[in-house]
């Protein structure tokens, strides 16, 4: 049994100790901060504890609080609750780059405005008057930079044009390339551009090079961040350095003043930035900065990494994947020091987190052994202990803590890496050491997840059984589905080829009317009522299945026409029993078509097709509801031809309409996007189901023209809405059928069509089905990647209804997965459905996909899918599919709040 260590244990060091909560330990921005922290802590003679909060949505664990005199948080890496707890314990708190309103947390930041002013003034000095701006305006710091840009335009009496602003969605290389494409498309007259990040600048310059626009000869470029990439790029970037080392120095100095009794100051401390002039702006040689102008830590990183390329390329992966004890390899690989390290697991008991050490290592020892420490559990505030076996904390010390997350933002365990702060590690060696620690955290997190899965093995097996059940059984009715009955048919044909059996296909009359009139909840209840009736009449050797919608199939052990008709009429009589639901009484009827094996067909598909032909003949017959197939019914092919002819005319005359069903973010209640849905009213045949005319289009080869018409109409409306509401992003989902997706040159033609209509690929989602994917998976992935390359996003529709859903998730380049309504309908009343949807959501989120729940009909279902983590909702609880005029009114209410 483990027990808590003495709470009166005090640090054995008299030096001041400062903790730093940082999202990551490495990277050009955070890496320079952590390297600067180490250097400046050495100079000021204080102990340093770095706490990596990456992996936590809201980091709030008070690790090492018993050691700390001060706490320094980088950006918003620590939760307000954690900082409030620190303040209550008397720990002085400082924040870099993020303001915690309502707390006694002093803030220090780099002067984003002054840096842009310096860059703008420099460009004006170089005689530029048409100066553009590129950046992701959704980011707070970039918003500040953009405002400074606008103010400089006003100061210099420059009338900035709207098309000088190149708004991008990412502060990365792809974002810069997008800005480059905008520049070319607008035929921009800008002579200079200020990019909000170095990565945007590099992407912009690379994109413009492809059309022979060079920097700085034809376009001067200035950026922000002073990254290693920007310094080595050709042309080397003129950039704004945020003076991170100076920022860290000032922050630690101020925090020490607070610890030594200085009063709290509410005013933000602002550190000026430095303009680093290089090649990309076209300045004369005598104005350019050398590396000597850069701060000490940045200079060391540039020089050391330039002289040690083999170390830069050392495989972090190969080291980190071996887990905790790979720490022993670091001194020889990165020329860093390591005193000792420990790994502690968290056991949550009696409302408290307790850590006990399960692994330890030190230079020269693979594992540490000792009874004293292993018998103690430490509170989070006490960890790491001052002494582990025979090893104590150096004086002064540098401790790096790697908290490992588990589900729901909980704490799985903590790695503590202890070093002498005055070790002789180089800046680049320490930087790569931190790169390794970031990766080690991910591997330990992965291993913890695997272990957790092993502990839940029985539950996982049960879930796998349930998911397999989904592949063969209809989730609404509980009876077998199309896949299972087809396998049964094929097995019979292979194993008993001479034994006659009947295939009966039944659908319900006027089911669509029930759905449209009374709602899907009534329609679903009716299908369950019919399924129960069909179970009652099924015999021992018969197999019942739901094919989809209101279609049911029997594979019956009968050998004569009379036996088949007798059974069919018993089925129809059972179905006609009145249906009561919420005070509503309905009587339904069915129509049945019968085909016999082997005389009517030799394959499962043939038999189902012949039974389908007979069923439609019975449906059109006024007095007969069950009918045997015969070859004369092939005249129904004529009906198919009629439908094809009318559909061809409707497409040519653009008589088909498009309705749009809204998709909502259930957490904000705001509309996220719309799905476009084709509708056809024929003066000859009336309203024709999309299932019917899309199938006709697929079979007749009209699907491409149909898809093109629906796409043009959808995109035109989307462009109109985008112009009406420029401050709102509305996603447009367009369904693409297998027949379209597999067409040669489809992606190129389709992209051209959308661009011709003025559509923005970044706001358009291409929806595909599993059928489209499994037809030719390799071809499908290649086509989808073409769409992704120009900004489209991909959604997998009706997830879970096909046989291969789980395997497809890994192989398709998806952004969204739409969970089929059959999974959602009883999610608030059936625990198994609830567990299945939870599993699907977790699985999709593990791949980084956004999940959308289809067919959500009730407020209770909204709350349930929200609890399970579904990102988006589509269903009648929000809105049915709407014609354009009605959606116009809905958007007006949503965006104008009228």
UniProtKB/TrEMBL annotation:
Domain EAL, chain residue ranges per copy: 640-895
Domain GGDEF: 499-631
SUPFAM superfamilies recorded: EAL domain-like, Nucleotide cyclase, Periplasmic binding protein-like I
InterPro entries referenced in this protein's UniProt entry, alphabetically: Cyclic-di-GMP_PDE-like, EAL_dom, EAL_sf, GGDEF_dom, LacI/GalR-like_sensor, Nucleotide_cyclase, Peripla_BP_I, Rev_trsase/Diguanyl_cyclase
Highest taxon in the source lineage: Bacteria
CDD domains documented for this protein: EAL (cd01948), GGDEF (cd01949), PBP1_LacI_sugar_binding-like (cd06267)
Keyword flag Repeat: no
Name under which the protein is recorded: Diguanylate cyclase
Species per Swiss-Prot/TrEMBL record: Photobacterium sanguinicancri
């Amino acid at each position: 049994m483990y027990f808590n260590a003495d709470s009166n244990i005090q640090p054995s060091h008299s030096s001041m100790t400062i903790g730093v909560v940082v999202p990551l330990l490495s990277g050009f921005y955070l890496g320079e901060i952590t390297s600067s922290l180490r250097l400046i802590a050495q100079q000021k003679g204080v102990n340093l504890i770095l706490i990596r909060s990456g992996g936590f949505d809201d980091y709030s664990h008070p690790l090492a609080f018993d050691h700390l005199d001060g706490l320094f948080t980088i950006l918003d890496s620590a939760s307000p609750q954690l900082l409030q707890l620190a303040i209550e314990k008397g720990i002085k708190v400082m924040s870099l780059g993020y303001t915690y309103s309502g707390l006694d947390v002093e803030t220090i930041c780099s002067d984003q405005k002054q840096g842009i002013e310096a860059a703008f003034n420099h460009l004006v000095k170089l005689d530029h008057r048409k100066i553009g701006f590129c950046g992701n305006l959704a980011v707070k710091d970039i918003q500040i930079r953009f405002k400074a840009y606008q103010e400089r335009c006003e100061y210099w009496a420059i009338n900035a044009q709207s098309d000088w602003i190149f708004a991008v969605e990412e502060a990365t290389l792809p974002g810069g390339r997008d800005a480059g494409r905008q520049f070319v498309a607008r035929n921009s007259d800008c002579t200079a551009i200020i990019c909000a990040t170095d990565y945007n600048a590099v992407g912009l310059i690379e994109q413009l090079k492809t059309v022979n626009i060079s920097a700085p000869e034809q376009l001067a470029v200035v950026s922000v961040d002073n990254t290693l990439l920007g310094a080595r790029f050709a042309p080397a970037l003129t950039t704004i350095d945020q003076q991170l080392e100076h920022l860290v120095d000032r922050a630690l100095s101020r925090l020490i003043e607070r610890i030594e009794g200085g009063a709290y100051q509410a005013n933000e401390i602002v550190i000026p930035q430095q303009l680093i002039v290089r090649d990309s702006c076209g300045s004369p040689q005598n104005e350019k900065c050398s590396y000597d102008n850069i701060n000490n830590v940045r200079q060391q990183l540039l020089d050391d990494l330039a002289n040690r390329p083999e170390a830069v390329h050392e495989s972090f992966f190969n080291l980190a994947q071996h887990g905790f004890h790979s720490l022993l390899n670091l001194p020889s690989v990165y020329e860093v020091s390591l005193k000792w390290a420990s790994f502690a697991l968290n056991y949550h008991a009696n409302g408290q987190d307790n850590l006990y050490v399960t692994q330890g290592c030190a230079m020269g020892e693979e594992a540490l052994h000792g009874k004293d420490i292993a018998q103690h559990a430490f509170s989070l505030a006490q960890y790491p202990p001052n002494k582990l076996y025979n090893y104590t904390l150096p004086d002064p010390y540098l401790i790096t803590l790697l908290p490992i997350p588990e589900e729901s933002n909980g704490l799985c365990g903590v790695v503590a890496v202890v070093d002498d702060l005055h070790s002789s590690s180089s800046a680049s060696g320490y930087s790569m050491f931190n790169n390794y620690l970031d990766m080690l955290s991910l591997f330990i997190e992965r291993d913890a997840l695997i272990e957790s899965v092993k502990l839940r093995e029985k539950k996982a097996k049960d879930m796998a059984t349930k998911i397999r059940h989904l592949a063969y059984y209809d989730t609404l009715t509980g009876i077998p589905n199309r896949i299972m009955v087809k396998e049964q048919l094929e097995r019979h044909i292979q194993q008993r080829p001479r034994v006659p059996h009947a295939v009966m296909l039944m659908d319900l009359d006027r089911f669509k009317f029930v759905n449209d009139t009374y709602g899907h909840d009534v329609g679903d209840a009716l299908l369950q009522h019919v399924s129960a009736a069909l179970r009652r009449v099924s015999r021992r050797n018969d197999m019942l299945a739901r094919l989809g919608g209101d279609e049911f199939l029997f594979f019956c052990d009968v050998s004569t026409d009379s036996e088949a008709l007798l059974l069919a009429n018993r089925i129809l009589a059972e179905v006609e029993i009145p249906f009561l639901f919420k005070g509503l009484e309905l009587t339904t009827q069915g129509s049945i078509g019968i085909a016999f094996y082997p005389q009517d067909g030799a394959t499962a598909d043939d038999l189902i097709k012949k039974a389908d032909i007979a069923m439609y003949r019975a449906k059109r017959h006024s007095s007969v509801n069950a009918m045997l197939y015969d070859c004369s019914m092939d005249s129904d092919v004529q009906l198919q031809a009629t439908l094809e002819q009318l559909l061809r005319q409707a497409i040519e005359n653009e008589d088909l309409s498009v309705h749009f069903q809204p998709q909502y973010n259930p957490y904000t209640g705001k509309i996220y996007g719309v799905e476009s849905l084709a509708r056809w009213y024929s003066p000859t045949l009336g309203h024709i189901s999309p299932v019917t005319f899309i199938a006709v289009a697929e079979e007749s080869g009209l699907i491409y023209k149909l898809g093109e018409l629906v796409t043009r109409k959808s995109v035109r409306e989307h462009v109109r809405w985008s112009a009406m509401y420029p401050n709102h992003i509305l996603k447009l989902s367009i369904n693409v059928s297998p027949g379209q997706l597999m067409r040669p040159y489809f992606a190129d033609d389709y992209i051209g069509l959308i661009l011709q209509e003025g559509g923005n690929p970044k706001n358009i989602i291409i929806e595909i089905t599993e059928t489209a994917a499994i037809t030719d998976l390799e071809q499908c992935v290649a086509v989808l990647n073409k769409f992704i390359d120009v900004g489209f996003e991909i959604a997998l529709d009706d997830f879970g209804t096909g046989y291969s859903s789980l395997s497809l998730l890994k192989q398709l380049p998806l952004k969204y997965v739409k969970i089929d309504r059959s999974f959602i309908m009883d999610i608030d009343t059936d625990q198994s459905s609830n567990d299945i949807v939870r599993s699907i959501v977790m699985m999709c989120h593990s791949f980084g996909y956004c999940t959308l729940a289809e067919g959500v009909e009730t407020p209770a279902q909204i709350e349930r899918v929200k609890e399970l983590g579904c990102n988006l909702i589509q269903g009648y609880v929000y809105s049915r599919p709407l014609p354009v005029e009605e959606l116009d009114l809905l958007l007006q209410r949503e965006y104008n709040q009228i």
